[in-house]
Write the structure tokens for this entry.
Amino acid sequence: MNIEVTNNKDIYKISINGRWDMSNAGKFINSLQSSLSNIPKSKKLSIEISDQTNLPLGIILELGNILKEAKNSLSLAVLEVNFGNNDLESIYKTISSTVLTKEKAVVKDELLVRIGKGYSEFVSELNKVLVFICLIVKEIINSVYHFRTRLRYKEIVSQIDSCGVLALPITALVNFLIGIVITYLLGNQLQYYGANLFVVDGIASSMTRELSPILVAIIVAGRSGSSFAAQLGSMRLNQEVEALEVMGLSANNILVIPRIIALMIIMPLLVVVGDIFGILGGMVIGTLQLDVGIDNFIERLYQVLKLQNIYVGMVKAPFFALFISAIGCRLGLSAEPNSVSIGNNTTSTVVQSIVSVILLNAIFAVIFTNLGI
Amino acid sequence: MTTNNLIEVTSLTTGYGSVVVHENLNFTIKKNDFCSVIGGSGSGKTTLLRSLICLLKPISGSIKMFDKEIWELEETERTILLRRISVLFQEGALFSGLTILDNLSFPLIEFSGLNKNRSKDIAKFWLSKVGLEDEVINKLPSELSGGMKKRAALARALILEPEILFLDEPTSGLDPIAARKFDELLKVLHDEFNMTVFMISHDVISILNLSTDIMVLGKGKMIVKDKKEKVINSSDKWISEYFSSGLRQN
Ligand SMILES: Nc1ncnc2c1ncn2[C@@H]1O[C@H](COP(=O)(O)OP(=O)(O)O)[C@@H](O)[C@H]1O
Ligand SMILES: [Mg+2]
């Protein structure tokens, strides 16, 4: 399996020998090209392919292409390809007459154009999310108040199980650890004033009002939002969504609404679990590190833990849930039927969900402040 | 090198977990054979194929390919062996996230050490061989019709010019004209490029046009594997009904 160059005065000969297969194609091309590069311009060149030589079609094709290029660049006086008795000759003739079309170059947008396009994409995406949410809310209201379409209780329950019950351990763990960290940092500052006990005020209000809802939202976006997108995306890939639609069933009704309702029911409860474990984390670090006795901690908690703050957290949660699940479902259903698009939409789900949760949270903060809550 | 047998199967039992699909299969495939496999749905044709191409470990028995026991090879040896064969899966199995061109270039870039430009020419050549126009190359598989996907998948299977080509129902889902074109293509590959073919099919016409050998699988066992002429003229009731109703249908 080799390529040899010999020359006799002005006549150069490249002989190709051996059994080549496609896994050597790269090697073949490299050695042929390096052989050609040793040949001076305007010479006679003959390519010899011996009787025993075996070349796959792909290599024959490239041989033709490379010789064509070489003929121009080396301005060869004569170029012959000799096959001897090899029956590859007819194949070579047919293939090397194959005309391959050249492709147009792709023009890239300029920076400013790309920024503009990105911005308009962002706006239209936001618009689509809001429209989708309105549509779904309308359908939910219809089904709840007018019994026009049946709610799928079984599906809702199974979603509550997978999005809520199975998320309990991770929610508890994350909130517990964040509770520890926040209380510890807070305690470190308060120690200077001998006001250790006030860590209870800090952890109780921050955990219930802000931290727990946000942490739960992030966990749910990562766990359930992304899985909604991937599930619905692969259902589209298998044409399952189309199958539902031609049965006269609405994908929104069967696939989207149960997920949204399930998440809206379960997320406030996850927030409460998060509250409990966050404060528990605070209690552990308070008693172990900050010398707040367990009795003192509980007594203080009893005084400063406002139900109002817990409600604020619980009120925000269903709205977060609505956005996360609607974004996940929308991006799943609108994925192109290919794996890359499903992957991209799954990622976008998490990003869009977290951004919108944080935006919503800011809006809630303004509203609650104005209401004096 | 001593025998002409590319595939040699002895007392093979396949199945999933403890569920046996077939027991005690024995057959050989010789160089340049075109072996068609027929059998009712669920008779385990795909299962047999999967164990031949190293996807499903047999429960017991031996499969030799190119004189090597495929299920006893080291990982690296097995990958080298797998490069000498190609498979056209029932649904094509094109990579949904890659364009047709990238689907075809992928094995070349991975295994041949060719760069993208060079592999593009070869990819286009094989697309033209399977009768696809140049304009499909920048499309995604989801933008093609079923028959076009099959052809593109065949082009991908052929691009490394395998010694054995495995086909799982290549003409299912094609219109009759396209199916006969596909037959012609397979015939060229088999006759002119000396490819050995192992084809699962329900398409009686293409089986009769192309095969040198026919294997008939029944529930849990192999009913017969022999030269085409012998199998067609067999006195087995199922076989004669299969061929006569297959021909009537067309
Ligand atoms: N992944 C699997 N797990 C368990 N059983 C399977 C699996 N795939 C196929 N089977 C069973 O194996 C048998 C043979 O299936 P298959 O090889 O697909 O049949 P064919 O291709 O001949 O229609 C069937 O009974 C099928 O139910
Ligand atoms: Mg099958």
Notes: Chain B has nine helices and ten strands. The longest strand of chain B covers residues 5-16. The mean pLDDT of chain B is 86. Chain B touches chain A at residues 83, 95-97, 108, 111-115, 118, 121-122, 124-125, 128, 134, 140-142, 159-161, 193 (CB under 8 Å).
